[in-house]
Write a structure and sequence with these properties.
This protein is an alpha/beta fold. The chain has 2 domains: 78 residues, Immunoglobulin-like (Sandwich); 191 residues, Rossmann fold (3-Layer(aba) Sandwich), CATH 3.40.50.150. α2 runs parallel beside α3 and α6 runs parallel beside α7.
Amino acid sequence: MRTADNWKDYTIIDTSDGEKLETWGKVSLVRPDPQIIWKTDRTDPLWRNADGHYHRSSSGGGEWEFRKRIPDSWNISYGPLKFNIRPTGFKHTGLFPEQAVNWDLMSHKIRNAGREINVLNLFAYTGGATLACAEAGASVCHVDASKGMVQWARENAAVSGLSDRPIRWIVDDCEKFIAREIRRGRKYDAVIMDPPSYGRGPGGEVWKLENCVYDLVKLCSGVLSDDPLFFLINSYTTGLSPSVMGYILGSVLTDKFGGKVSFDEIGLPVKSTGMTLPCGATAIWETER
């Protein structure tokens, strides 16, 4: 497992019975996590005194219980990057800290490429990967269908001091945007995607990742330059293993571009136990040069 263990402003303190106890800067939260099926003792008193606790509802969704007044939003840092954190109605905070292990990898590859790199970030959410690539010197096209998420990403770029970097902010359906980029003949040296497990398109069509991911990768291969640097897929779909995603990348890209494929779970360290909590999976195709 690849572990995002370079955080200073974020910590998982403990895990038990479907929940994790975290600190985001100075704010402590308890949030659900379906991977946590063990029921170990909750000895840390912060379990009972955390600033916020998200309770799932048996009918779906849930709500926050706050034990004290916390800011509507606050910033945390990862190296030179800063992120605007705020609890949402769907348990999330606007950031997936486990992705830092991928930010580090992409930043390293961009800095060592020895040339200008143009990155396409699809389903780009609040811009963690966008900021990491831009800070490393790449030009980035950030695409997400949610206007609110793109605005949040722009706020993160501003607090990180990256507003002047060459970032295109696009609110659009990712597949339709890719198809138009292919028609326009635009090319990218790297593609990042973090597609949802399930959703509905603008016409009501059902999106299910395991049924659609191969065609999506195939489509995206049409915007790669003649000398691509990397192609990275994230997934939080439990039925889609890292090896399956790796095989898809290899079958689409290696015959044309060579290179190599790697894949693994990604996770976060847990302070109380020393274990690593699995938090999803990533497959990466990259050039061997």
